[in-house]
Design brief:
The complex is a heterodimer of chains A (638) and B (507).
Chain A lengths: L6 H20 L3 H25 L8 E11 L2 E9 L1 H24 L6 H20 L3 H19 L6 H32 L4 H9 L5 H18 L8 H4 L5 H10 L4 H8 L1 H6 L3 H21 L5 H21 L3 H28 L12 H4 L1 H15 L5 H16 L1 H26 L5 H4 L16 H16 L13 H10 L10 H4 L1 H24 L9 H4 L4 H49 L4 H26 L1
Chain B lengths: L9 H18 L5 H25 L9 E9 L4 E7 L3 H21 L7 H20 L3 H10 L1 H11 L4 H29 L7 H8 L4 H18 L8 H8 L2 H26 L1 H27 L4 H21 L3 H32 L10 H4 L1 H14 L6 H12 L9 H29 L17 H19 L2 H14 L6
Antiparallel strand pairs in B: 1-2
Helix pairs in contact in B: 1-2, 1-4, 2-3, 2-4, 3-4, 3-11, 3-14, 3-19, 4-5, 4-6, 5-7, 6-7, 7-9, 7-10, 8-11, 9-11, 9-12, 10-13, 11-13, 11-14, 12-13, 12-18, 13-14, 13-17, 13-18, 14-16, 14-17, 14-19, 14-20, 16-18, 17-18, 17-19
The chains are: A mainly alpha (638), B mainly alpha (507).
């Protein structure tokens, strides 16, 4: 079965191509069902491949399937090849699995949209690109997917492009990502000249066996991390992600929460051995950037009013946790958190989409409240997502976040403290959101006049096609932690499964204080989560404490505005300056040369006056000069 | 170099067939437009058929060898011969010129620019085709020069007669600038001829013997060729004729200019300047690479400040040709492979972008970016095609543009022996940054033209892609995707020829 792994990306590609050609003829809702069906089939194939791999001895669970010779130019020999191993299949499982659910959900969410089939075309192409990214055997195939998801993300963010904000957000996302892609590209160049190949296996082996210099290893690692910062929205390149919420909500859930933004974490795990062999400051940088992003984004999330922007900053923050894990050598924990995060964040986004749908496209939480009665299923599943992300046991997020913090404690206690603070804020802002949306008083009566066309405005529950994915994801958010429970080595299923991929890089913490006292840390995490929730309850439910939502946080520390001002001010001035320079100096020289030629020509032309007497004078003058010269020479020679 | 002389009539027929069409057009009455269009169409279809015959009979296992070689006396008094042939470098460009001409003719069936007169228009186009095809097959410097110059005049008239408001200025500038370059190029050709013993103008002969010229002399000869080719490419700072020419030229002129004419310069570097003067090439390469990198960034910055869609696309050519020249300047097989791929890719993509610009102008009667918008709403297919081409132009992997840029930048990491590695690595880092700016200006263009809401152009001119346009564009679009997915289709042909060409540099 593993030889058929190419079917996994191929099926969504077929779906995309069919929709590209016949999309408008297939129409709603069949285009949506078709797209969902191919993704679901792709999921089934992935499951089959998974069981196939599971049946093999763990050291044989790595299969390269070469489709064709891609570029054989001189020494540059790169195959179009896929790699099926525990890491890529884990990624493929949740990309196709969650992808199918979100496709299904989108059939309901996009109902009535004039570009219904085009939406599913992009979604299918996205899934295809994402699968190429994770299944790539070498950096170039991954890069194909990497840029492909970027392009699909661009078209999907700007899907409602008649809104100016959506049109701008797409461009912003793509261009910011390109800054990161510069890193990936350059990393490939370094890898190719150091190793002579861009295949992961060759690069990792060369790093592990010391076949390339530590400088080259570190350069590859840090450049790939630059790429990861772009795609996974880390400081300083995070600022495209909140704006990406302009896209339809299923897009936010699929691309900007569950799958694409985790590509950076995946890439780091894929080249784990390179990271492990690089200079110490490389993993340190990754951990610091991760921790800083986790705290920074969490602090912004506490003062946002848009239901989706809270979740967006939360995603940035959770991705920070994953990079914190990578930097601390906890690859399994990073992947663990990536998977559980995909469950509960997709759930939360889809839940918010259901709210937005039911509220007739209202996204401001200040105009919501008490929605639990109007939309009971959405509220119930959203609350499960909240408990999972807030770190309440036994929900999925608790176990994965705890696993990360355990490793971080063993690595660096300051970063651990930052992580705990970010976890506290996470519990706080998520509780705030749940209260503002589902509890308290109904504030949408005031807003009803804005939606006057609907007469008596009543939020409504979403259709079944949207609720079923919510329920499935809710179940996964409850039980997802079972993949990797801390109590006994036998319960580390994910670790055993990923072991062949991460064994060279994974840090061992057994014997550290943290490992011996992991139940203490577990308890500390519970206390922190409880404190965050209690604080938010006191502020937003009981109103015992005033809400702290300063402008600085609401405006995201003015980071975005500063960047925008720099690009719009000095940046634009530079571009205009170059154009002026071009027309006045570079082209001025050309026109100047032409003018000079014309000027000289017109002066010279005057000598051709046509007056015979003038010619005679010039002629005789010339004769005199010539004669004088000859005489002069003769005199000199004598 | 190995010569294969089978079927040696093919290239001559393919190159001069358009001239037959010109004669036929001359005797067709001016009033009979349908007949004129039919003659032009049939001629270019016949040319492409000959092109396909060439492709089919090309021996791909020996793509490094000159094939279909024909050589006869031409001007014995100056030892110039009629010497033609194609290898893996010429073949794609030779065929591209035929296909693009056909597509432009098809497009013109429905879009004769004002002030009309299809007869003269098609005659010029067919002469142009002979000149372009001839340049790519000429293996003798004088023959090359004749074809190279033959291109100039029809394009001059095309811009000067069918152009925009400032057509006089633009066409004259184009003509004089290129002539200036050509004059120096001709001097260089004569110099290399005399310095190799005044034996022959044949390129293979000069490749054998050019290396024997003293290095300081080579450097001066190279300078002449450099000016001639660099103006044509155009490289920074010789590029200022290009935006004017493109902005003023009719759509057909812009397409041919972008798709083929610019490649005559880069092709000249690859075919003539570098192999015949290897020592000078080593000396010049870092400067060429430097100008190329400046062009990449400069062109991109220029694009970001343009207000006219066509001018923006023209400026982007400066940046894209910078990647091509960077690849060439590394003097490595990667670099030159990338460069030749880049020439074809740029021809397809930028040719397509100019087609789109022409169609936008026809529908909206303006190319001012500020006055456009909402194409995806009003003309969704056209908007979609623009999106695809923008993505291709910014170098998205999976589309053709990527394979011109990526290996070119990669090649700068390890330039040929004798070149300064740290200089080239700096070039690499800066050139890679150019891809960021490329995304910025193309997506800015796309946001302003395709996204948003239509700005009150509700008249009947605004319609989606027509049948003629589909027929003219589909081959280009298919090629953009096909070469992007399977780049080996091109690399497989180019690579052996590049290895052969760069023998003086150890591959």
């Amino acid at each position: 079965m593993v030889d058929f792994v190419w079917l996994v990306p191929f099926l969504p590609l077929i779906g995309g191509v069919v929709l590209m050609v016949f999309g408008s003829r297939i129409g709603e809702p069949r285009a949506g069902w078709l797209a969902t069906l191919v993704t679901a089939t792709s999921f089934l194939v992935t499951v089959a491949v998974y069981f196939d791999l599971l049946g093999m001895p763990s050291e044989e669970r790595s299969h390269v399937v070469t489709l064709f010779q891609w570029i054989p130019v001189g020494a540059l020999q790169i195959d179009f090849a896929l790699l099926a191993d525990p890491l890529s299949i884990t990624m493929a499982l949740f990309v196709t699995g969650i992808g199918s659910l979100i496709h299904l959900y989108a059939i309901g969410y996009m109902h009535g949209d004039p570009k219904f089939s085009k939406f599913f075309l992009y979604l299918n192409l996205f899934v295809f690109s994402m699968l190429m990214l994770v299944l790539g055997e070498n950096l170039l195939v991954t890069f194909l997917g990497w840029e492909g998801v970027g392009a699909c993300s661009y078209f999907l963010i700007s899907f409602w492009h008649t809104r100016n904000s959506a049109a701008v957000a797409g461009k912003k996302a793509f261009v910011t990502n390109r800054i990161g892609d510069w890193g990936v590209m350059t990393a490939m160049f370094v890898a190719f000249s150091a190793v002579g190949s861009v295949s992961y296996k060759a690069i990792n082996d060369a790093a592990h066996e010391g076949a390339m210099s530590q400088t080259a290893i570190s350069a590859i690692a840090i450049l790939l991390f630059v790429g990861a910062c772009g795609k996974s929205a880390q400081l300083p390149l995070y600022f495209w992600l909140p704006d990406a919420m302009e896209g339809p909500t299923p897009v936010s859930a699929l691309i900007h929460a569950a799958t694409m933004v985790t590509a950076g974490v995946f890439l780091m795990t894929r080249v784990g051995p390179v990271l492990a062999e690089s200079y110490g400051w490389v993993p340190d940088t990754i951990a610091i950037v991760g921790a800083a992003t986790a705290l920074f984004a969490a602090s912004i999330a506490v003062a946002q009013h848009d239901i989706k922007r809270v979740l967006a900053y939360s995603t940035v923050s959770q991705l920070g946790f994953m990079f914190l894990a990578i930097g601390s050598g906890a690859y399994v924990a990073a992947i663990f958190h990536m998977v559980t995060h995909a469950f509960f964040k997709a759930l939360l986004f889809l839940g918010s989409g259901s709210v937005i749908h039911g509220m007739h496209h209202e996204q401001d939480m200040r105009k919501m409240g008490a929605l639990r009665t109007a939309m009971p299923v959405t509220a119930f599943t959203f609350i499960i997502g909240w408990l999972a992300i807030a770190g309440v046991p036994p929900f999925a997020g608790f176990w994965s976040k705890d696993e990360i913090l355990l490793y971080v404690y063993a690595d660096n206690r300051l970063l651990y403290a930052i992580g705990m603070l970010a976890a506290l804020l996470t519990a706080y802002y998520m509780t705030r959101q749940v209260i503002m949306v589902f509890f308290g008083e109904a504030r949408w009566h005031d807003a009803a006049s804005e939606h006057g066309a609907h007469g008596d405005f009543r939020p409504h529950e979403s259709p079944k096609v949207m609720l079923i994915p919510l329920m499935v994801l809710a179940v996964l958010s409850v039980v997802g932690g079972a993949m990797q429970l801390p109590f006994s080595k036998d319960l580390h299923f994910l670790e055993h499964w990923l072991e062949p991929v991460v064994e060279e890089a994974e840090r061992s913490i057994s014997g550290t204080w943290a490992y011996d006292n992991k139940y203490v840390l577990l308890l500390a995490a519970i206390v922190v989560a409880a404190a965050g929730i209690a604080l938010a309850l006191a502020v937003y439910a009981r109103r015992r404490l005033p809400a702290i939502e300063p402008k600085a946080l609401e405006n995201a520390w003015w980071y975005d505005a500063t960047v925008a001002r720099l690009v719009g001010g000095p940046g634009a001035a530079t571009f205009r300056g170059i154009t002026r320079f071009d027309s006045q100096v570079v082209d001025g020289a050309v026109n100047g040369a032409a003018a000079l030629a014309r000027g000289v020509g017109s002066q010279v032309r005057r000598s051709q006056s046509g007056f015979v007497r003038a010619y005679a004078v010039i002629l005789s003058l010339g004769t005199v000069v010539l004669l004088a010269w000859f005489v002069w020479r003769g005199w000199l020679a004598s | 170099m190995q010569m294969i002389r089978d079927n040696n009539w093919v290239l001559s027929v393919g190159t001069f067939l358009p001239m037959l069409g010109v004669i036929a057009l001359l005797v067709t009455p001016k009033a009979n437009e349908a007949a004129i269009k039919m003659v032009a169409l049939l001629t270019s279809v016949a040319t492409v058929i000959i092109g396909i015959f060439t492709l089919v009979n090309f021996d791909f296992d020996q793509a490094g060898a000159m094939q279909f070689v024909a050589q006869t006396d031409w001007i014995p008094v100056i030892k110039s011969t009629y010497f033609i042939g194609v290898d893996g470098i010429s073949l794609p460009l030779y065929l591209l010129s035929m296909v693009v001409t056909l597509l432009v003719v098809i497009y013109s069936l429905d879009h004769i620019p004002s002030p009309g007169n299809p007869k003269a228009f098609f005659i010029l186009m067919l002469i142009l085709q002979t000149g372009m095809a001839g340049t790519f097959i000429a293996q003798d410097l004088i023959l090359f020069f004749v074809f190279f110059e033959l291109v100039l005049l029809p394009m001059y008239f095309m811009i000067g007669v069918w152009g925009g408001e400032q057509r006089q200025y633009a066409s004259l500038k184009f003509f004089l600038y290129t002539m200036f370059g050509s004059a120096l190029m001709l001097v260089a050709f004569l110099a290399i001829f005399f310095k190799t013993g005044a034996e022959s103008f044949a390129i293979p002969y000069l490749v054998e013997n050019g290396g024997g010229i003293a290095k300081n002399v080579q450097v001066w000869i190279f300078a002449g060729m450099f000016i001639g080719f660099a103006v044509k490419v155009p490289m920074f700072p010789f590029h200022t004729w290009l935006p004017d020419a493109h902005t003023q030229a009719p759509t057909q002129g812009s397409v041919i200019l972008a798709a083929i004419l610019l490649k005559l310069g880069t092709y000249g570097f690859v075919r003539i300047a570098i192999p015949t003067l290897p020592d000078a090439a080593i000396e010049w390469a870092p400067w060429i690479g430097g100008l190329a990198v400046v062009g990449i960034i400069y062109g991109a910055f220029g694009c970001l400040a343009q207000t006219d869609m066509k001018r923006l696309i023209a400026f982007s050519s400066v940046a894209h040709m910078g990647f091509v020249m960077l690849g060439i300047s590394t003097l490595t097989s990667f670099g030159v492979n990338a460069a030749v791929f880049g020439m074809v890719a740029h021809g397809l993509i930028t040719g397509m972008l100019f087609f789109i610009a022409g169609s936008v102008k026809e529908r909206y009667h303006t190319l001012e970016i500020a006055k456009l918008g909402g194409m995806l709403t009003q003309v969704p297919r056209l908007g979609w095609i623009l999106g695809l081409c923008s993505m291709a132009s910014l170098g998205l992997p999976g589309l053709a543009g990527f394979w011109g840029e990526f290996p070119a930048i990669l090649s700068a990491y390890n330039p040929a022996d004798g070149l300064n590695v740290s200089v080239y690595r700096t070039y690499m880092v800066i050139a890679a940054l150019g891809t960021v700016f490329a995304a910025a200006y193309l997506l800015w263009l796309y946001q302003r033209t395709a996204f948003g809401t239509p700005k009150g152009h509700d008249h009947h001119d605004v319609h989606d892609v027509t049948t003629y346009e589909w027929v003219a564009w589909l081959p280009l679009l298919v090629a953009i995707v096909a070469f992007g997915v399977v780049p080996n289709l091109l690399f497989g042909v180019i690579d052996p020829a590049v290895q052969e060409t760069l023998r003086a540099f150890g591959g």
